[in-house]
Amino acid sequence: MIDSAGLYPRASAPLLASPLLQPEIDPPKEGQGGLETAVEASPNTELSMDPELSAVVSTASSDDYAQLQRRYILATLTVSAFAVAVTALFFDLHIASSVLVGALSGVLYLRLLARSVGKLGNGSKSVSKFQLLVPVLLVLAVSRLPQLELLPALLGFLLYKPAMILQVLLES
After folding, report:
1. What residues are paired with 9 via a beta bridge?
2. pLDDT (average), residues 115-135
3. Closest CA to 76 of 171, 148, 166
4. What is the pLDDT of residue 36?
5. How many CA atoms lie within 13 A of 37 on its CB side?
6. Distance between CA atoms of 18 and 164, rounded to whole angstroms?
7. What angle do CA 57, 58, 61 make, to 5 degrees?
8. Bridge partners of 86?
9. How far is CA 38 from the centre of its chain?
10. What is the pLDDT of residues 18-54, one digit of tens each?
11. What residues does 2 pair with on adjacent strands?
């Protein structure tokens, strides 16, 4: 069949791409599935409604997260100290100081990011953007101080990433 303008064929029944998209002929009756059986089938509904148990789980998870933060910051400080020592050995102290300033700003960035992520469940619905000021201030400080170089400072700032990768590899 052709439509009134004669351009496009008109289908007598709607064309659906998948049989999954076709409407159900017999929707489930009350008590035959749906939300009622999903709630009844869940054996842990009593446990998830207990406020004391959820407080214990929340405290345990926040302690685990604090321990994870400490491990990541310690790994970042270790990798940074190694990188600064190698830079001081193979290059001059001018470049090593730039790497050190960048590494310390990377640790500050990581700490601010971890604190922002830690606040997510406690009333905050998104991660703060405050930690993004750290690389901006680093670039401004490098541009104002003639003792610092930009590229080594930025590489020092990014040392938290290999430290995190190394920490993940050591955990697994």
Report:
1. 2
2. 82
3. 166
4. 44
5. 7
6. 44
7. 85
8. none
9. 31
10. 455 555 555 555 555 544 444 444 444 444 566 666 5
11. 9
Burial 76-106 (b: 16+ CB within 10 A, else e): bbebbeebbeebbeeeeeebbbbbbbbbbbb
Count the residues in the chain: 172
Classify 112 as helix, strand or coil: helix
Cβ neighbours for 128, distance < 8 A, ≥ 6 positions apart: 112, 116, 119
Q: What is the rounded CA–CA span in Å between residue 102 and residue 138?
A: 7
| Closest listed residue to residue 31, CA positions, set 21, 22, 23, 41 | 41
155-171 per-position pLDDT tens digit: 999 999 999 999 899 88
Report the distance separating Cα 60 and Cα 16, nearest Å. Answer: 50
Torsion of CA 100, 103, 107, 110, to 10 degrees: 170
Using a cut of 0.90, tell me whether the model's pTM lies above it. no
Q: Which residue has the tokens 């190694």?
A: 82
Q: Find residue 105's DSSP bridge partners.
A: none
82 to 75, 78, 103, 153, 171: CA distances (angstroms): 11, 6, 11, 15, 20
Contact 105, 138 (CB under 8 A): yes
